[in-house]
Amino acid sequence: MYLLKLKITNFRKYGDPGLEVIFNQGLNVLIGENESGKSTIIDAVRYILNTQSYEYIRVQETDFHCNQAGNRAEELKIECEFTGFTDQEAGNFLEWLGFDENNNFVLRVWLSAIIKTDRIIVNTRAGMDDTGTVFESGARDLLRVTYLKPLRDAEIEMSSGRRSRFAQLLKSHPAFQKKPNESHTLEEIVEEADKKIQQYFGQQTGLTIGTKPIEPEGKIIIDEIEQALNSYTSEDIKNKPFVSLSGVELWAILQRLSLQIDKNLPSLGMMNLLYIAAEFLLLKRDGYTGLKLVLLEELEAHLHPHYQLNVLQYLIDNYNSIGQTILTTHSVILGSSIPLENMIVCKGNRVYPMGHDYTMLDQIDYLFLERFLDATKANLFFAKGIIIVEGDAENLLVPAIADVIGFPLNKYGISLVKVGSKAWKRYANIFQRTDGSGLGMRVAIIADGDVPCREHLTKYPPKVYTLEDNNVRYIGTDLVGFTQQMKKHSQSALITKDGKHPLTEDWIDDYLQFVSSSQEKPDRIGTDIRITYNDWTLEYSLAKSCLKSLLHESMIEVLKMPGISFDPPDLTDSPYEFMRPFLSNLSKALTAQVLAKKIMDKKPDLKGTIEQDPELTYIIDAIKWACNK
Predict the structure, then answer these.
(1) Where is the OLD protein-like TOPRIM domain (predicted)?
(2) pTM
């Protein structure tokens, strides 16, 4: 069985109508910025199901939702729905079970709490109707979850003591379940050690360990204590003190054990890995017919990225033995490595599962994103807004321009994501939902218009197909498309690959019109995604903008660097001639890096000029859209 659905009403940040979360049977990763509700979801599950460690959980007044007017709700409700039962698992909950539309077992359990004057009344019930019946403690114990809290102190949890988590884990393991009227092997070992200790402190001679004789020096100490003690008491009272191990019962023994990995104190990360491995011990019990569910907050705590990924892969590979997992993360490393189908984005007061049933991504999109969604791109799951750019130059310049015009991206919680070429179309699908809603954040896409200027077409004419008939002109760049365009024309059968030729001057206007009309350039996708375009490329727009002189300075500075060689343009050159070095061997990224610094150095002088420059409008509009301005 597994947790299919969680419903929250008036619990902490979620008011009424509240929140519904649908979980996968295996791995579920709650991902999002701070205060997005990840911990609230985890705590809701803890409150209703309780934990394997039997921690004391009590509903507090602050758990009741408080609205913007400062009014606190007086009732809250947390509901879980379970499915996927085996017959053995279902047998534990027969009086509360129902069936879904596919005739599969379903269990509904809910916790309700009411504030009455100075106390909080909590009830846990189960059943398929709205009334249900009391959910008995024996059945509740079978739904307890394994919970690993954030900022885990693994050293304390695995150390000996009355509250030792390691002792609790061992006590619950079948290997430490005692048979009636029989001693556990560990008790026999400790009892034998206890006899040796008593002999060491009480026996005069004949004590050995193995074949080695031992001098019982402890006898001298006990004799001195006995002599002093008896001098304090009456003559007729003779006390005989002795030394023994305290508590030779199994539970007392387990409490004195600690789990270690090295005699020297290991790192926090290694202790956390040890702690996680120990917690998973109970989930692998043979024959266990209760719920197997792990709640793991901030997997990345104290862990190197390599270890984070290893634990994540372990959770995926060992689902059959460990069961269902719900974890939270702030890690972009994990965000880029988790299959999208297992991800649930928390944003505002909603959650957005990223599986096939919920997004506009197709199967090819999923495969593409799993290959190319790296740690830098995974920032998009933690942002308040997104700007997607095509190349390195935009990735370097957009933050500088945003800062100059008064919208520093870090202050507005904007993530800048570089995707390369036209791949932004796949990333845009992440933010589109099958129900027509968005992902709760604004997305701006800065794209190249890819319509070259006349000078470039004259100097580097592309090969095209052309045909003129009765003053009607036809032009195309690929044989299939051009033939399709000409299918009703009498000469279409004469068109072959050999008919492709360099574009001539008299066809440039037709070519520009063809390129402009054949490219799909939507300016909006849904309600939250906006795409802005330049005419051709970023560098061409810069060469026509108020930043031309700074760009020229940057190009000259790059030319002075070792191994860099190109013919520098003159400031009086046309925009096309000015940006031509970028079409050959001048690094766009390196030049943009130098230019970004120069822009920041002249920040006070550039704000008004940049904002009023029509060549930079497409960048400014994108920045303001992402910042919700």
Answers:
(1) 381-450
(2) 0.83
